[in-house]
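Slide 14.
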Amino acid sequence: MYKGKKILAIIPARGGSKGVKLKNLRKINNRSLIEITANLVGNTKYIDEAIITSDNIDIIEEAMKYGLNSYFIRPKALSKDKVPDLPVLQHGLKRTEAKTKKYFDFIVMLQPTAPMRTSKDIEDVIIKAVNFNFETVWTIFKVDHKFHPDKQLIIEKNKNLKYYSNSGHKIIARQQLKDSYIRNGLVYCYSRNALLKDNSILARNAGFVISNRYTVNIDTFDDLKEAEILIKSN
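Slide 15: predicted structure.
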């Protein structure tokens, strides 16, 4: 709890994965991605409840082994490749509140595929959301101007090269570029209202925490190897 606001951490980890099979159970330095995330949650202030939402029994058992709670098995309809985060979070929140008889003001989503987050990353986002009454807070990092959207290109179906942005042809010098940012997947925080009333994961009243250190999100076996090297070196 932070300033009277109850915080629920939801760890989404479905069993299906095309790039790396059961990647949430894959290990980095002899610890599974689930274990890394669960241990971090246990060492983070302000979190009142932490749950796993998964359709896979092995993942659920791994999560419970390291202290996460499980109140349900995620329905298959919410476990497909193209299911967005919003309905998964809504389902997890509603089922947890029904089981625990608790009411949560903010929901923090922690994807196990971002093993390089820290307790401070999570706490900073919670503090930002509560102190400034943001409906949404994401961790982000700044995009190098070399990769700015206005400088990016696409190849159309007819194989023609084209600017990704309609304003791309106007860019002559980097001084013309506005700073741009992308989410880095470390921490997402949502108010209860954002999820259940506004049906939005990026509310109009949205804040951010900038994290410029290099991190790896796990999508491939190469990502696993890179993350292991980086975590060992740090």
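Speaker note: The beta strands are 7-12, 27-28, 31-32, 49-53, 106-109, 136-142, 153-155, 161-163, 181-191, 206-210.
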